[in-house]
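Listing S7. Sequence submitted for prediction.
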Amino acid sequence: MIFPPPLKPGDKVGLLSTARKIAREELQPALDSLRAWGLEPVLGEHLFAVDHQYAGTDAQRTADLQTMLDRPDLAAILCARGGYGTLRIIDAVDLRGLRKHPKWIVGFSDVTTLIMAAYNRNLATIHGPMAISWNGKTGDAASREHLRQMLFGELSTYAAAPIRQDLVRTGRGEGRLIGGNLSMLSQLLGTETDFSTKGCVLFLEDLDEYLYHIDRMVVHLRRAGKFAQLAGLIVGGFTDLHDNDTPFGMSYEEIIADAVREHDYPVCFDFPVGHAPRNYPLIHGAKVRLEVSHTRAELQFLEGGKR
């Protein structure tokens, strides 16, 4: 796995949106924070373009991403926001420039498509807060500080108190950390961006879905064998979920627990990753150790920086 070098003061960080449009004023808090960290923001040429719900046309978003992937003077790329749109352009993107000039890509949600495409080429990325999360409403200071430390090469060990102790499965597992947004992961199956989970610690999160949608996607992953040979499973935030007038009858935790009931690797729920203010950054592709008890879930990074 290729890990980009740590950032240092004076480095340039590109900002773009591969998905939904963003207004200049929404970006200002992120620009202020990056400068306070000693970094120089570089805006994508079409960052504030608008094409219906997108940040410009597919061609414009592709051009911004390709340009920043290829630029040797950028140390990182911070995605502005998610939504939907990365899936539309991923097949037009050439990641060879990222191998030649490794740089951290930071994003989550819809950006799961991009970070999984990078993973399939042995390129580590950061699943973490995007620029929109600096506005004080959709992000928190702890997550941003963890991101700053991670970008500058410092690794944290995360711990959380597990919920649904009746469903938690205790134990220890080690493997490469992969995953992201459940909706996006399910859309990658059977494509050039499909992925192997053998020996990995998988993490999942999602937003604004019906419970039966969650079940359909989880069953799809199970049928594709994505839960069969894991070293561990981290279930992050599943926020703003919906149900029909006739209740589905299971919570999202019960849906996922049922899908992996035949396996014996550690499983934890409500880990601080996903569409909530507390969204801890994760090094996607790094080797990690997951330890789960009935009172604590701990995730330790074994590579990707210094402790």
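Caption to Listing S7: primary sequence and predicted structure tokens for the chain studied. The two ends are 18 Å apart (CA to CA). The longest helix spans residues 24-36.
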